[in-house]
Please model this.
Amino acid sequence: MARPNIKLIKAIRTAAKKIQEGTHYQWGHMGGCNCGHLAQELTPYSKREIHEYAMRKSGDWTDQVEDYCSTSAMPMDEIISSMMDSGLERADMIDLERLKNQEVRRFMGERGEKLYHNSKEDVVDYMKAWADLLEEKLLADIKLPENIERFATVDN
Model:
């Protein structure tokens, strides 16, 4: 599972919101699909650029992530590297493209039982749940010192 951090959580939520509000979504378009939208938020690249770079190699997001090479200097590998620098693991991108992370789906409850990877509404719900799950994990990792004093209430 991705390394929870504010930048990643914000990017996932922003991508979900843009898809929900009607930005162009097309599962078969490397820049306008599930991973493509998240890549737009985590990198400086546009939908068009992501798609163009992806077409220089063969395969969909799953294939390209599986064939990823951190030293290739191929633009698509640089995009994947940048996404990984933001806290994603390779499996996260593969799971996002097919909405198949079981932890996220369980977190969604009954709603997560039947999702279609190319349904705009399902992608939005999955991404929102994923961001919420990452936020819960981030907050759970915050440990306050035991000797911290509670804020005093001031009577006016």
About this structure: The mean pLDDT is 91. Helices lie at 6-20, 34-42, 47-54, 61-66, 75-85, 90-98, 102-107, 120-140.
